[in-house]
UniProtKB/TrEMBL annotation, chain A:
Its EC number is 1.2.7.1. Residues 16-240 form the Pyruvate flavodoxin/ferredoxin oxidoreductase pyrimidine binding domain. Coiled coil: none annotated. Heterotetramer of one alpha, one beta, one delta and one gamma chain. One of its GO terms (molecular function) is pyruvate synthase activity. GO terms for biological process: response to oxidative stress. The gene is porA-1. This is Pyruvate ferredoxin oxidoreductase, alpha subunit.
From TrEMBL, chain B:
The gene is porD-1. Residues 29-59, 63-92 form the 4Fe-4S ferredoxin-type domain. It comes from the Archaea. It comes from Methanocella conradii (strain DSM 24694 / JCM 17849 / CGMCC 1.5162 / HZ254). It is an enzyme of class 1 (oxidoreductase). One of its GO terms (molecular function) is pyruvate synthase activity. This is Pyruvate ferredoxin oxidoreductase, delta subunit. InterPro entries: 4Fe4S_Fe-S-bd, 4Fe4S_Fe_S_CS, PorD_KorD.
Length: 399, 94
């Protein structure tokens, strides 16, 4: 049976995917721009479309994260969604969920973090949650965000992995945009995603202790096991993406995806919804004869070091665009890419901080970045890291 | 050498594992319950973060509480909570 195509909001596409995954528990606390996702799910439950799903309104995001932690510990598939300040309030629990190896799935509608207060999109919320053990996947558009939810459960619940997965989708740009999205045939999703079978679950008949104290003799080993599971997830993410393609006919990439990278001398590298604009910029530059392509990082954790080395093997200059900054250093993806290529690639690497707090990044901006890459190849003086469109006129004296 | 116990994913453990961690050695003050004053209300046991007070000294009529010094860290919450001031925090002599 052919799935139906429908013009819906990105949040609704994610909610439809969640419904098709048959979670037993959904916890919710509202925060812009995530709220529509859990609102849509709440409506589906009220309409009787999601049988056997408990919808729990919590007192905070700390509670929302704790609720899915408890549900997964009891062996129930769960879901929640958050953004920005809400995600920050979840951080303590996010570490704990990963440490207890509970394959929760959260949709993160990416938004800037206060202060100054901004409700608009950038990637700082998820990037600041980089080291807590969660797998981080990044969607390019509504369809991919929805498809990623289904893949996320398969990846996280795989017994070779057993880690929580954060599906990142750009706030407003994806969550609030109406696009044609292919929806799901329940039978196909059921075939693709079997019910969750936990290795350990809380059960009064067979009691266990979860999340208890680890003495110095075992803590290192516990952290090592999480790291190994992240590395193992690299294979699983690729496998699941290919299997999804076979079943549903759609492929947004595995760990990464490449666009017009054949003979490319300059590559634009980024995560999230800006990939679409970058592809348009590349099309225009290719029409002018410029050898430039796009590499989309789809999995940020685990970091696809080998895949990026292979994709950038013949590239002379890689331009990394970050919608975040590690204060006092540089963009997070920029740092990671350099680490992955160090000693193993001759490519030059430039970093750009762009699109913070909802500032638009246009086709011309990307073309400008790529031109800087070509200028670097020609040996012209180009700074290693640049703040794109920084308005120096409004900065106070001495900044 | 005995074979080391293998870790489980997420360090899932058998229940009651913390009984093996005897934390009494952390103590500077020891909670001592005066059984002349103790009315057996159980508030010390309910308020103890380590479950150290336990029911003891049944004489058929009255119940009393004692402290398990393997686990009492000497925090003094029980002495603060005791409604009849039956618990004294005594300096631990090393």
């Amino acid at each position: 049976m052919a799935a139906k195509m429908k013009v819906i909001e990105g949040s609704m596409a994610v909610a439809e995917a969640v419904k098709a995954c048959r979670p037993a528990v959904v916890s919710a606390y509202p925060i812009t721009p995530q709220t529509h996702i859990v609102e849509d799910i709440s409506q589906m439950i009220a309409d009787g479309e999601m049988q056997n799903c408990e919808y729990v309104r919590t007192e905070s995001e700390f509670g929302a994260a704790s609720m899915i932690q408890g549900a997964e510990a009891a062996g129930a598939r769960s879901f929640s969604a958050t953004s920005s300040q809400g995600a920050v309030l979840m951080y303590e629990v996010l570490f704990s969920i990963a440490g207890m190896r509970l394959p929760c799935v959260i949709a993160m509608a990416n938004r800037s973090v206060s202060s100054p207060l901004s409700i608009w999109n950038d990637h700082q919320d998820a990037i600041s949650a980089r080291d807590n053990g969660w797998i981080q996947l990044w969607a390019e558009d509504s369809q991919e965000a929805a498809d990623m939810i289904i893949q996320a459960y398969r990846i996280g619940e795989d017994h070779r992995v057993l880690l929580p997965v954060m599906v990142n989708l750009d706030g407003f740009i994806i969550t609030h945009t109406y696009e044609p999205v292919e929806l799901y045939d329940q039978k196909m999703v059921d075939e693709f995603l079997p019910p969750y079978s936990p290795v350990y679950a809380l059960d009064p008949k067979n009691p266990v202790t979860m999340g208890s104290l680890a003495q110095p003799e075992v803590y290192t080993e516990a952290r090592y096991m999480i790291h190994q599971a992240q590395l193992k997830a690299k294979e699983v993410i690729e496998e699941v993406a290919l299997e999804f393609k076979k079943k549903f006919g759609r492929y947004g990439g595995g760990l990464i995806d490449a666009y017009r990278m054949e003979d490319a001398e300059v590559a634009l590298i980024a995560m999230g919804s800006i990939i679409g604009t970058m592809k348009d910029a590349v099309d225009e530059m290719r029409a002018e004869g410029m050898p430039v392509g796009v590499v989309k990082v789809r999995s940020y954790r685990p970091f696809p070091a080998e895949a990026l080395r292979a994709a950038l093997k013949d590239v002379k200059c890689a331009c990394v665009i970050d919608r975040d900054i590690s204060m006092g250093m540089e963009g997070a993806l920029f740092t990671d890419l350099k680490a992955a290529l160090y000693g193993k690639s001759k490519a030059d690497i430039l970093g750009f901080i762009a699109g913070m707090g909802g500032r638009d990044i246009t086709i011309d901006d990307f073309k400008g970045m790529a031109r800087k890459g070509f200028a670097r190849i020609r040996g012209e003086k180009v700074t290693d890291m640049e703040w794109c469109k920084l308005d120096t006129d409004i900065l106070p004296e001495g900044s | 050498m005995a074979a080391k116990e293998k870790l489980t994913i997420g360090l899932v453990a058998k229940p009651g594992g913390t009984l093996g961690y005897k934390t009494g050695g952390w103590r500077t003050f020891r909670a001592v319950i005066d059984h002349e004053k103790c009315i057996g209300c159980k508030r010390c046991a309910d308020s103890c973060p380590d479950g150290a007070p336990y029911e003891c000294a049944h004489d058929g009529k009255k119940k009393k509480f004692c402290v398990d010094y393997d686990y009492c860290k000497g925090c003094g919450i029980c002495a603060f909570e005791c409604p009849v001031d039956a618990i004294e925090m005594m300096k631990e002599e090393k």
